[in-house]
Amino acid sequence: KRKEILPNPDCHPADVTFKHKSANLESSSQTGAQGGSVAKALLSDGSFHVRAVTRNPRKRAARELARLGAEVVKADLERPESLRVALGGASAIFLVTDYWELGDKEREVAQGKTVGDLAKKLGVRHVVFSGLEDVSRLTGGRLQVSHFDGKGEVERHLRHIGLPATCLRMASYFENFIEHFRPQPEGGGRGGYRLEIPMADIPMDGMSVEDLGPVVVTILKNRSEYVGKDIGLSAERLTVQQYAEVLSRQLNRSVRAAEISPEEYEKLAFPGAQDLANMFRFYRTRPERDLNVTRRLNPAVLGFEEWLSRNLHHFADL
């Protein structure tokens, strides 16, 4: 095998390591969906040896990666001594930090910096980081999006210490429609469903997290082309009305785009509503996400309708 990877297989801090020829590649992942996507894509490619680093190797997702051929090792992003062993000998790292698990931007930043600093000391040749924009910095403090801002701070740190890195900025996950953006029943016995996304008529980029893995494979195989790049990823750019139309066709239900403002959205009774409302305010500024580059990195990337047609079972109760 030419390469080795370690992803986060269980929605907790984890690492992914890769080897290319005689070199090693390591990846730290705190978001199971992203880490799992990357690990499976590298395993499927066949030229990678995958090492999955997780806090709990007994988790079902970790056991599944082991079954697929990954080496599963135990480590924790908040225990640098465990990471040193897990990342030893790596030539590349896939890193993703998870604000939502921690609920603390400063801890997220500290974890990202810890991995970056260790990668620098170990002589890692390439870090692929799943970052996002520092919205607070970009807007002069007008908007604060904690689950973006910390990743932006980690991006700057990786550049500051001179680490050879590629920073990826994902679009909104299509998977959010399964839960966070799920169509809600209309009230008053009217029947049908409404889609509550405060984007008005401004298109919103989207992409399945499952399509991230092949993107990372391409980048790792073409290191010299992508080191030093910031890449905004998107499979499709649709208005809320267009998303609603696709949902209506595929689900055979009436789904409409509800009129809701960010001000109304931030008052909804769920944790993180303020942060998400500010995220949508930022999305309304049309941050850079490149459809063409995304398709070049992953020619098989799915648009929303095709993704939805393959995931109808998640909406069987509508």
TrEMBL record:
Keyword Protein biosynthesis included in the entry's annotation: no
Pfam families given in the database record: NmrA (PF05368)
InterPro entries documented for this protein: NAD(P)-bd_dom_sf, NmrA-like, NmrA-like_oxidored
Domain NmrA-like: 31-308
GO CC annotations, alphabetized: nucleus
Membrane-spanning ranges: none
UniProt KW keywords: NADP
UniProt keyword NADP, yes or no: yes
Highest taxon of source: Eukaryota
Family: Belongs to the NmrA-type oxidoreductase family.
Protein name, UniProt field: NmrA-like family domain-containing protein 1
Source lineage: Eukaryota, Metazoa, Chordata, Craniata, Vertebrata
Gene (name only): NMRAL1
